[in-house]
Amino acid sequence: VDTERQLREALREEQFTLHYQPVMHLPSGRCVGFEALVRWQHPQRGLLAPGAFLDIAERSGLIVPLGAWVLREAARQLREWQGEADLAGLFVSVNLSGQQLQVPAGTPDDLLTVSFPDGLHLEITETSLADTPEALRAMRALERRGVPLMLDDFGTGFASLSAAQRFPVGTLKIDRSFVSPLPGDARQTAIVASVVTLARHMQLNVVAEGIETAEQAQAVTDLGCTFGQGFLFSRPLPAAAAAAFARSRP
Ligand code: G
Ligand code: G
Ligand code: NA
Ligand code: MN
């Protein structure tokens, strides 16, 4: 309850900031975009990662206005980068809570009232996707607007294939629990190989998450994965450092 009250205050006082983790085109080593990740600049406790407050935000419903702030801030930052010739082609993806897809149409935190710049993508996990008519309608409306949707933590849910079939997503992000064991035994390799094959047949992009070693990067690249993300390339960075990172790549 105390954290909830502080969260409300933090929203009013804009104590949040976004960090950006690079997403790489594996064959060329180019940085093609960033995943935006929220941080709370807490007046006493310092910079807090989402693990410290996201559960409470979800349970209290504050994730809805917080998520709306994240979207507006990511859109603002992306537009700023698009004004700079050497950053203009980058995308920024924002993680959505399933609750953001349940907001009644036309109310202030309704996703569809946000004006999405080209290059703003949304990430959603299968588990947070309530299979409701509202969520499906919101996703279809986003699709019609041309907002790219990415299925996050792919493979960790009980119905990943079903989610890939039912929801209009353009990218699968292979969860890091499948990437970490690589280069691994035949079973571990088969899972990633199968997701890449599935994605190719569905004409979807694939991002391998959680790449921490050069061997993992090589393994997912050999399996045909085009994009990757992980501490090997970069941790999430404040905006200026993220821009510098992108400029430092080919
Ligand atoms: O940055 P970090 O590794 O601590 O993030 C932990 C989790 O928080 C990740 O699963 C990420 O998807 C989630 N997360 C980060 N930023 C946001 C956000 O803006 N909205 C939502 N809903 N989840 C986020
Ligand atoms: O659930 P989601 O995929 O949105 O999680 C994103 C989180 O994963 C971020 O908070 C980020 O800090 C973390 N992350 C990103 N790359 C790596 C990595 O290479 N290793 C580990 N352990 N965590 C990572
Ligand atoms: Na994500
Ligand atoms: Mn993920």
TrEMBL record:
Span of the entire protein shown here: 500 to 749 of 761
Natural source organism: Deinococcus indicus
Ranges for domain EAL: 1-250
Transmembrane segments: none
Lineage of the organism: Bacteria, Thermotogati, Deinococcota, Deinococci, Deinococcales
The protein's name in its UniProt record: Diguanylate cyclase
